[in-house]
């Protein structure tokens, strides 16, 4: 993976344009974001609700920091498309959160819209990271033919999961 900006990893500065192996980036971010995203999800939808201001402060700081790292790692254009695709996928994300909440007898509509902002943003950031991890782990980023195949398989699997979750939530 070629960095789009300067970044320090484990005390070592990697300047813009440096190739960094995927295992130096993805394990940390995937685990870190799963923990923070999970805590944000539990705060938003759990039985003990912190004040909404705390939810926004806790999640907002982390999401801002992740976004700044994404800009350095993936570049402005990739991050711009992450948010464009997120806006287009809001209904898909809503249906997935609705399905997750249905597992504990709740629905997304049980909460005011502003409670969903932090979990939605975590979901967007996490799926963006998963996509890039798949591209790098399969060594598809620099090979146009392989990249097209991996992206098509990724989209197919994603659509299959979304449709399955949609119908599972309807049962």
How would you describe what is shown here?
- The structure is a single chain.
- The protein starts with 6 loop residues before the first strand and ends with a helix.
- The chain is globular and about 45 Å long.
- The chain has 6 helices and 2 strands; from the N terminus they run ββαααααα.
- The longest helix is centred in the C-terminal third of the chain and has 27 residues, at 144-170.
- The model has no long low-confidence stretch (mean pLDDT 87).
- It has helices at 26-45, 52-74, 76-88, 90-102, 117-137, 144-170, and strands at residues 7-9, 12-14.
- α1 packs antiparallel against α5, α2 packs across α3 (76-88) and α4 crosses α5.
- It has a two-stranded antiparallel ribbon.
Give me some keywords for this one:
single chain; 171 residues; mainly alpha; two-stranded antiparallel ribbon; 6 helices; 4% strand
Short summary:
The protein has 171 residues and is mainly alpha-helical.
Q: Which helices and strands occur, and which strands form pairs?
A:
Layout: E1 7-9, E2 12-14, H1 26-45, H2 52-74, H3 76-88, H4 90-102, H5 117-137, H6 144-170
User: What value does the Rg take, in angstroms?
Assistant: 17 Å
Query: Which sequence of strands runs across the widest sheet?
Result: 1-2
For the terminal residues, how far apart are their CA atoms? Answer: 42 Å
The fraction of residues in strands falls at: under 5%
What number is the mean pLDDT? 87
Topology order in helix (H) and strand (E) letters: EEHHHHHH
Largest sheet: 2 strands, antiparallel
Count of discrete structural domains: 1
Shape: globular
Low-pLDDT residue intervals, each spanning 5 or more residues: none
Helix-and-strand structural type: mainly alpha
| Total of DSSP H or I helical runs spanning 4+ residues | 6
Q: In total, how many beta strands?
A: 2
**Proportion of helical residues:** 55-70%
């Amino acid at each position: 993976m070629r960095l789009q900006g300067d970044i320090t990893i484990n005390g070592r500065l990697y300047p813009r344009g440096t190739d960094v192996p995927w295992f130096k980036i993805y394990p940390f971010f995937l685990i870190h974001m799963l923990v923070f995203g999970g805590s944000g999800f539990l705060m938003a939808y759990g039985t003990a609700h912190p004040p909404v201001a705390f939810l926004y402060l806790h999640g907002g700081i982390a999401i801002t920091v992740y976004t700044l790292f994404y800009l350095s790692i993936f570049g402005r254009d990739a991050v711009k498309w992450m948010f464009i695709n997120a806006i287009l996928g809001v209904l898909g994300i809503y249906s997935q959160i609705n399905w997750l909440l249905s597992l504990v007898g709740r629905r997304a509509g049980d909460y005011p819209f502003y409670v969903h902002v932090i979990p939605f943003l975590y979901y967007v950031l996490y799926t963006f990271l998963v996509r890039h991890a798949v591209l790098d782990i399969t060594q598809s980023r620099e090979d146009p033919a392989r990249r097209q195949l991996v992206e098509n398989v990724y989209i197919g699997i994603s659509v299959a999961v979304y449709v399955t979750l949609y119908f599972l939530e309807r049962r």
